[in-house]
Design a protein that fits this description.
transmembrane; 4 helices; membrane; Inositolphosphotransferase Aur1/Ipt1 domain-containing protein
Amino acid sequence: MGEQNIVAGISAMPSLHNATSLLFALTAWRMDKRLGAAMYVVSAVMFLGSVHLGWHYAVDAYLGWAMTGLAWWISGCYARVWSRTSWNRKLDETCTDFSKN
């Protein structure tokens, strides 16, 4: 019997390394396009490195990215609905107007 390497062939579905790097890129893009572009490069390097080094299969990253995209879209929809509610505007005004306290 040969030696066993306990970390060889580790693969987790989905890849949270790739998912969070994409989430950071999406967030950075909303803040500043140049920063976002740099973070997309980091995300691509993370993808290539995680697959090349054998920590993940490519499909792990694809699923992580798909889940991140879905979460980003759902969060955006929720934020738009939340900002339209009249009771939320009243709550925001109360919480941010410190002269009334």
